[in-house]
Each structure stands twice: as C-alpha cells, then as structure tokens.
Amino acid sequence: MPESPIIPAPRPRQPAPALKWGILGPGGIAGRFVDALHRQSDQQVVAVGSRALARAQEFAARHDIPQPVGSPAELVGLDEVDVVYIATPHDSHRAMAELALNAGKHIVVEKPFMMTEDDARSVFELARHNGLFAMEAMWTRYLPQADVLAQILEAELIGEVTYVAADFGFVANYDPKHRLFNPDLGGGALLDAGVYPVSFISSVLGAPRAVHAVGSLAATGVDDHAQLSLSYERALACAVTSLRSALPVTAVIGGTKGRVEVDSPYIRPSGLMLSTKAMWGPDPDAVRWTDTALAEPYDALHYQAIAAAGYIGEGLVESPIHTHQETTAVVGVLEQARRQLGAR
Amino acid sequence: MPESPIIPAPRPRQPAPALKWGILGPGGIAGRFVDALHRQSDQQVVAVGSRALARAQEFAARHDIPQPVGSPAELVGLDEVDVVYIATPHDSHRAMAELALNAGKHIVVEKPFMMTEDDARSVFELARHNGLFAMEAMWTRYLPQADVLAQILEAELIGEVTYVAADFGFVANYDPKHRLFNPDLGGGALLDAGVYPVSFISSVLGAPRAVHAVGSLAATGVDDHAQLSLSYERALACAVTSLRSALPVTAVIGGTKGRVEVDSPYIRPSGLMLSTKAMWGPDPDAVRWTDTALAEPYDALHYQAIAAAGYIGEGLVESPIHTHQETTAVVGVLEQARRQLGAR
C-alpha cells in the first residue's frame, strides 16, 4: 500500500518562543514530558516542585532540572517560571491550577483537565480573567497525525462524518489503594483512559447532544469498564474504556464517502489508512500515511509544549485547536458518564 | 506474522446426507446460495418457486435447477423436496416458513429469521411441534473462522471475554421504494445489516441483559443508522449498523488476557489475529490465522447448507451452534432497538 499524495502532509508548526517551564507533580508522565522537551525542543525546564522536597530533588537530578522546590506554592512563586505544567493526581488539578493562575503563571494541565465540568469552567474563567493561557495536556491533539486527519476531514475526503469509534483501556491488577482504583485519587477507567477516546471523538464531531453510558464498577466504587454512546444530529459515536479488557486502541471515522482507520495505538504517533473506494469492507485502493518522525513515541509529548509556547507567544488564552469550551464539554461527558454508572 | 500452532485449526464437519432443496424467493442471495451448493457440495437443488412463474423459470435456467414452479404453495407441496430455503423479502418470512412447515418441510430461512421475537418464537414452536428442522441462514456461524474463534474462546486463550464490538453497514442511495428503505418490505439498516453484528456479539456473549439503541431514521421511517449498547453481567458490547456510513466491517473480542481481531469483512471467510501479550496496543507476538479454503467468498454459503443437512440427518430440530433460543433473542434485540428508535 503506497504512501499517497492524496493524503495531506502535516503542516509545520509556527516557531515558538523558548519558555521557562516549572513542573508540578514529579511522576512518570512528568518525567516523560521533561525528557521529550529536552530532546526535541528548546523549551527550558527550570524548576520542579513537590510537597516532598526529596522527590523533587530526585526528579531534578534524574531529569537535569536546575531547581527543585519543596512546595507547589514555592514553585508557582518562582519569578523565572513562565508556565506551569501540572501532573499531580487528578483530584488536585483544580487546586494546583488555581494556585498557578493566581501567581500569574500560564498552565498546561495533564488529562483529565479537571474532575468535573464545573471545575473546568471555573478554572478556565480564572485564566481568562487573569489573561493567562490554560490548556489540557491532551498531547494527541498536537500530533502530526491529528493535523493530517483534520485536513482529510476539512477536505471532505470521506464526505460527511457519520460515525466515530475509539477505545482505550487495558487490564490492570486490582489494588484498592492504587490511583486507578482509589476514588480519593480520582480513580476509574473513564478519567484515566476514557478521556482519550472521548476527546478523540470530540476532535471530529464536537460536543454530543446526548450521552448514554453502560459499564461496571470496581469494589472501590470507581468505574472499571465503560461504553459510551454519543449521539449527534447526524452521527453516532462509541467510546470504550476499561481497566479489565485488553482493548485494541484503535479509532475509526466513517463517512458518506469513505473512512479513516487510525493505526493502533492511535493515542500516540502512529499512522492512518484512508479508504474512499469501498462502501464496506477492505478497499483495495486504500492509501496510508505513517508517522516516522520520532523513534521514541513519548518524545511526541513535546508537540503540545511547543504548541502551548507558540500560543502563549501570540498572547492567546486558549488552544485554538482544543478550546476551553471543547475541553469543558469533554470533562462534562466523562462526568455525565460517571454519574450514569453511579461511580464514586 | 506467522500462522501459529497456538491457534486451533477449524474442526472438520461431519458428513451430511445429500438432501433435496427447494428454493423460495429467486433473488440475488438465493442465486449465490444455489451456486455455492452446486460448486462446493453434493446437496441437490431440485426446485425453485416464485409467485411469478417467469421469474422462477428464468432463475431455474440460470442456476441449473430442474423444476421451476409458479407459487410458494406448489413449491412446498413437491414430494421430492426435503428442505425449503426461504429467501423472500423479510416481511414474508413468517408466512413462507409456516407454509413450508405445515407441508412437512424442514426450513432454512434467510436473515433476519423473522421481523419480531413473537414471530420467531411462534415459527420455532411450529417446527418443534411438527418435528421439523428450522434454522436461520446466518452463514457466518458455519464458517471455519467461527469454529476457530469458538475454540479460542473455549480454551480461554484471551481469558474472560469482557468486550465485543462489531459493525456492518454501508452507504446506500436513498430510494423510498427500495427494500432497504421501504417499511412495507422490512426495510432499515438493523434488519438488513445490523443482524450480522448483533448475531456476532450473541455468538460470543449470548443474550444481553439490556439493550440501548441510538440512531436515526430515513424519511420513510425506517432506521438508517443505529448503534446498540449491549450490557452483560461482566461484559459490554457495541453493535453498529448503517445505510449512510462506510463502515470497516470489523469485529473485536477483548478479554482479560488478550484479544481477537477478526479481519474485515468478518461476515465472510477472512481471518483473525490473536494477541495475548499486550495489555493494550499492538502485540509484537500476535499470531494470525487466515482462511484460504475458498477463492470465491460467497461459496462459503454452502457451509450452512451442509451443517443443516447434517443436523437434519441426525434428526435435530435446531442448530446446536445457533439454537432457536439464541436466534429468537437476536431477533428480539433488533426489535427492541427498532422500537427504541421509533422505526417503522
């Protein structure tokens, strides 16, 4: 299957200023984010903060960051920090975001942006009120493949979109104290993994007019498996997430003239196949695009940082390709689904 | 990716008696069925019946069938016919089935078996009462890949099944008189195409404890796009069907130890991939099985005929791998979904 000129190439990003980043929450994802910035960009990570100074120091040493500090308040108070990357547990996102915004810092907040729609709305209002940039670290929105897909849809190469399906889930060993299963740490499949398929569907179709969730709860009361039917005026979507199913991590967009199947795992740089000749089943003339830019998938975390830096440089308060309104709506879908399932 | 000894080979079918078939409803699917029987089996097609004798004659000449007759009653009354294959429009299935059963003939009825759960229950009761065999022509159940899949699941190679997704749909030009859009002919996506994914899910998980459908209606009032969330005690499933979306026609089964992805289009002989090493995303050690037995996909229609002949030879009244109860439940799911959508 040839790489095809039919599929638009990803558009290059505008140059972005090299900002100074402070990291809040020195966990696994923060480590990958910092490494990606160091390897793939000229963004500077100047400080890392944690309630436990030793953790910040250990993280700083391992990831080559000059200044570890022993409290979130201290981190956001550092003059040299332009933008704070928040990767603390889900349930603390709001407090950390408000702390940073009140200290005059721009913020990029790990997924899910907030636990509830009200929280998201409130934090975005604060950012706007303070004239600061706020964005969810939904890195998938800033991958080259997201731009390829956006151009395919803009050009209506598959006609009108009538169907989107996406899944993300995995089998996790049940441990009531682990953040995945602990309701006090914002546990559950939806907030941890389900945010990916719901956000993917949103990137194509926007906010649904109705959400219907089915699923199950773990013994701790968090959702451990969920399937969401999202209804649109002229389209349907299915999002699946799980802590007890080995899911394929694929995404499909069906239209009136063809379809796009995004390679597994679609939540990282992968590739996609465009079919426009078959009305069902495999299309012998399907064409492919594959992202071969980066050897290490998690290095793609830098794209969102460069995008954020560019937007901040332009004086924006939100990501034009993933707006406050859209982020809030996605948080709302997850909240609605959790409520329907009776999840804690 | 090598063909793997981990994946069980399809089990050979028991020898079946060569029965004499009468065909009711000389349309496209009947032509493919007869050709498949002639090319791939020693089953004999002895007669074809239609309300229009000329159509029966034309079909008989084209498909090498000795006896065309000008009415369904005449067809089912022929002494030499053992079993009647019913491929008339959906809305006539019940009347044709009762005609054949009351004439003492076994029946194999095209999908969907009946339009309503009550009809299915009633027809199966009549068959049992008369000691006759009755089966839905859900050919996919009798494909070699269905047996491979059944063995994978029986051996619990993917652990407990927690997730199934399957779709079948296509873009159809809107024509209010065409059977796909005509409510008087049993139109709609669910009855025509949706029966495949719902039956596939049923083959893995059985009858759901709840059904929730979202979708849309064509101007004629039939469903033209539907997505069903099926809930089970410990699993979820999503079935999608459409007359206005170019769907991939794939099926996935996710479990607690791995997953199976059935190649597109899963509704014909295709192949499958078994992943047992990755808890999400692609498994580098995934193994494949591909069905290369037949050059012409529709020749696989003969498998169900041989299966039926074998069961009839054993004196059974139902297919042990696709029971009356299960067929009735699938018809019930389709009926429930249509009712939820307000479809005619």
Automatic annotation (TrEMBL), chains A, B:
<feature type="domain" description="GFO/IDH/MocA-like oxidoreductase">
    <location>
        <begin position="149"/>
        <end position="261"/>
    </location>
</feature>
<dbReference type="Pfam" id="PF01408">
    <property type="entry name" value="GFO_IDH_MocA"/>
</dbReference>
<dbReference type="InterPro" id="IPR036291">
    <property type="entry name" value="NAD(P)-bd_dom_sf"/>
</dbReference>
<comment type="similarity">
    <text>Belongs to the Gfo/Idh/MocA family.</text>
</comment>
<dbReference type="GO" id="GO:0016491">
    <property type="term" value="F:oxidoreductase activity"/>
</dbReference>
<dbReference type="InterPro" id="IPR050984">
    <property type="entry name" value="Gfo/Idh/MocA_domain"/>
</dbReference>
<keyword id="KW-0560">Oxidoreductase</keyword>
<dbReference type="InterPro" id="IPR055170">
    <property type="entry name" value="GFO_IDH_MocA-like_dom"/>
</dbReference>
<feature type="domain" description="Gfo/Idh/MocA-like oxidoreductase N-terminal">
    <location>
        <begin position="19"/>
        <end position="134"/>
    </location>
</feature>
<dbReference type="InterPro" id="IPR000683">
    <property type="entry name" value="Gfo/Idh/MocA-like_OxRdtase_N"/>
</dbReference>
<protein>
    <submittedName>
        <fullName>Predicted dehydrogenase</fullName>
    </submittedName>
</protein>
<dbReference type="Pfam" id="PF22725">
    <property type="entry name" value="GFO_IDH_MocA_C3"/>
</dbReference>
<dbReference type="GO" id="GO:0000166">
    <property type="term" value="F:nucleotide binding"/>
</dbReference>
